[in-house]
Every structure is written in structure tokens, then in C-alpha cells.
Specification:
The structure is a single chain. The protein is α/β, with parallel strands linked by helices. The chain has two domains: about 260 residues, Rossmann fold, CATH 3.40.50; about 70 residues. It has eleven helices and 16 strands. The strands form four sheets. Strands 8-7-9-10-5-11-12-13-14 form a nine-stranded mixed β-sheet, with helices on both faces. Helix 2 runs parallel beside helix 5 and helix 9 crosses helix 10.
């Protein structure tokens, strides 16, 4: 005789073992249906947020990584990517970032101008502000005016909170920012600071799993910057990203890029290489850091084979500018008026007759502290100072 159950005055038959097993089979089949691939369906090609010389990378709906040794230009690479996205195709990005752009297909897919969220967990606030203004300058925007397409979140110093660890709070704030800003691409400059330690395996797996889900569900890209272990060779390509988070990040990403610094007698350059890719490999690109926007340090791609035009600097070579000033110091009395500096130092000694070029050279000279303003002579006079040893890349 069947067992009976009385509910709301109705007599209902309790499910027996056969009923329970049938229900389990139905639930299992329904869930399995979600994950079978059907050869009759057309699965669309992915969209990419960026391309270099026509080769796409940075899959929308995926996560990516940029690695490198300390002070090897990772943040400069992120600035290039952000400026290429935000200033796509304008005169200045074409000049400084030739070949790097957003694919036309992606612009149509998004239906709006791309939005960028940059999160800094490592640098001092001044340096984060320089990244913001560096991108503004490359986009041709006012460097002191906010733009709702580009938001920067500074999370280096977290106030003490007895209820929540700093690394957990950072990740929570990043998730809130993504919800509020609705960016198309996110750059986390310092994923290590989202963990209690570089080898926190559990948190590494959890965060990257959440990032992957968020990227796919929101159809965005999420980039993560992480230091490499000290290299064992001389080319900088064999250093793996640090800790458990580096191992897990390498397993999850669709693209891994590295930045390598080279220092020679002729100056400092950086080479960007795609270390891992799920599609066609992107060409390497090399860049230098210029003083064209003063102390901001603006990266400029050099020797790009995909650029048909030679990229001309906006000012003369820094060493030449210094040499002209040294020569003028021996021949003329200082301080000298601004007009005379341009006329004599850059015009007569430097043989630069273009007034715009003379002004650009003067800006470089003052930004490099070759010249500083003087009150000893009317007309904004200047006098010489020795240059700093090296920019803090």
C-alpha cells in the first residue's frame, strides 16, 4: 500500500525511488544539453578589442596578461593599449602608435566608442595621475578634464579595516567599478595585490575564475599586469610570471605579452612580444619613451614595418639640444630671454629655422631642466642646469 501525505487537505502520493531516479535523469539530461556542441550550428568568430598591423588580439569575453621584469615598461605598454583604444585613428595615435588600433569590425559590434577602466594597485598617486594624463595627451584630450570614456581607480593604499583584508577590499571595489562604469576593457595594473600572497593558490584560482566568468558574461576584456620571476637567460623571454597567480593566469589567458627593456649607448628602448596566443601571432613592436609631453614620458613605437610613413619627432634630439645649450653657454652671457634662446640657441646654433620646432626644443630643454626660469632678466630669462641622470622608467 502506498504511503500517503496530507498537504492542504489534499492526499498526495509521495515519490518513490523510481520517481526520484526519473527526476534526476531529466535534470541531468537538461543540464548536459547546455554543453554539447552541435555541428549544425554556426559559431561566430570572436571579436577582438585591438589589432597590430592587421593582426587582432585581446579577445572580447576573455582575460589577457602583460608580464615583464621590474621597471621594464609594462605600464607604458598598458598606456599604449589604452590610448590606441580611446584615441583610435586620431592624428596623434597614428603618429605615436602606428599599426595599433581597434578593428573596424569591433567598432560596429560595440555600437559605441569604447570605454576603458584602468586600476592601479602598485604606484604612488602621482605616477597613476601621469598614466591618466599620458593617455589623455595621446588622445588629444585636455589633460586636466575628466572624460567619461576613461576612468582610473587608485587602490594602492587601503585604509585599515578590521573586518576585511586589503586585498579582498581591492577586488570588491574593482567589481563595483566594473558594474558602475560598464567598461569594454579593464586593465588591472598589479593583480598580485588582489591576493594575500603571491602563492595564495586558493584566492588565485577563485579570482581568475570570477574574472573569466565576468569577462564572458559582460563581453569585456580584462588585462592583468604581473612581474616575472628574475630571468635566467639574457633575452628576458624565459622568466615566468610570479607565483601561483602567475601559473594560473598563464593557464586562463587568451594572450600573454611581455615587455623587455634594452639599454645601449644610444638610449633606452622597450620591445613588446606576444609570448602566448590562441590565434595568429602578433608582430613584436619596439618603443621609446619621449619627452614630447614634458615629464609625462610618452611612448612612441619606432621601426614599425606596417607604417608607410617615417615617424618624425616633434622636437630635435635631446643630446643635440643639450649640445647647443652648452655651446651657447660658452659664447653668450646668461640669463637670456626666451625669445633670444629660441633665436640664438635653436635658430643660429641649432640651424632650426622653424619657429614651432624652436618652441618644441625650448619645452624639452625646460622639462629636462637644461634650462630653468630666471628672475634676473626681464622677458622670462633662463639659465642652464645639468640634466638628470635618467628618467625613472
Amino acid at each position: 500500500m502506498d504511503e500517503l501525505n496530507i498537504q492542504s487537505g489534499n492526499i498526495q502520493k509521495l515519490p518513490d525511488a523510481e520517481d526520484i531516479e526519473a527526476q534526476r535523469r531529466r535534470e541531468r539530461e537538461e543540464e548536459l544539453k547546455l554543453y554539447w556542441l552541435d555541428p549544425r550550428e554556426d559559431y561566430p568568430e570572436p571579436y577582438y578589442m585591438l589589432e597590430y598591423n592587421g593582426v587582432p588580439f585581446s579577445t572580447i569575453g576573455g582575460i589577457q596578461a602583460i608580464g615583464g621584469q621590474r621597471k621594464n615598461g609594462k605600464t607604458f605598454v598598458l598606456a599604449q593599449l589604452m590610448a590606441a583604444i580611446l584615441g583610435n585613428g586620431n592624428e596623434r595615435t597614428q603618429r605615436y602608435l602606428p599599426g595599433l588600433r581597434v578593428p573596424e569590425r569591433t567598432i560596429k559590434y560595440l555600437g559605441h566608442e569604447p570605454r576603458v577602466l584602468y586600476i592601479d594597485t602598485e604606484m604612488e598617486k602621482l605616477n597613476s595621475a601621469k598614466v591618466l594624463r599620458r593617455v589623455h595627451w595621446l588622445c588629444g584630450w585636455d589633460m586636466k578634464m575628466p572624460n567619461d570614456r576613461f576612468n582610473v581607480q587608485w587602490l594602492k593604499n587601503m585604509p585599515r579595516d578590521g573586518q576585511e583584508a586589503a586585498h579582498k577590499r581591492r577586488w570588491r571595489l574593482i567589481q563595483w567599478a566594473i558594474e558602475d562604469v560598464s567598461p569594454d576593457i579593464v586593465f588591472v595594473d598589479g593583480i598580485r595585490d588582489l591576493l594575500s600572497s603571491i602563492n595564495d593558490e586558493g584566492t588565485a584560482i577563485e579570482i581568475l575564475s570570477q574574472m573569466s566568468t565576468m569577462a564572458e558574461e559582460r563581453q569585456i576584456c580584462i588585462w592583468n599586469a604581473l612581474h616575472q620571476n628574475p630571468r635566467t637567460g639574457g633575452d628576458g623571454e624565459d622568466g615566468k610570471m610570479r607565483g601561483w597567480i602567475g601559473t594560473e593566469l598563464g593557464n586562463k589567458v587568451s594572450d600573454t605579452f611581455i615587455s623587455i627593456k634594452s639599454k645601449t649607448a644610444s638610449g633606452v628602448t622597450f620591445t613588446v612580444k606576444q609570448q602566448d596566443a590562441r590565434g595568429k601571432d602578433v608582430d613584436d613592436w619596439k618603443f621609446e619613451v619621449t619627452d614630447d609631453a614634458g615629464a609625462l614620458g610618452v611612448p612612441r613605437i619606432i621601426g614599425n614595418p606596417g607604417d608607410s610613413k617615417r615617424v618624425e619627432p616633434e622636437h630635435d634630439d635631446i643630446n643635440e639640444i643639450k649640445r647647443w645649450i652648452d655651446e651657447a653657454n660658452e659664447l653668450y652671457n646668461w640669463p637670456m630671454t626666451r625669445a633670444d634662446v629660441k633665436k640664438i640657441v635653436f635658430g643660429e646654433i641649432g640651424k632650426q629655422k622653424n619657429t614651432g620646432r624652436q618652441q618644441a626644443d625650448l619645452v624639452v630643454a625646460t622639462n629636462m631642466r637644461f634650462l630653468v626660469e630666471s628672475t634676473l632678466k626681464s622677458g622670462n630669462g633662463s639659465y642652464m642646469l645639468q640634466p638628470p641622470d635618467e628618467m625613472p622608467f
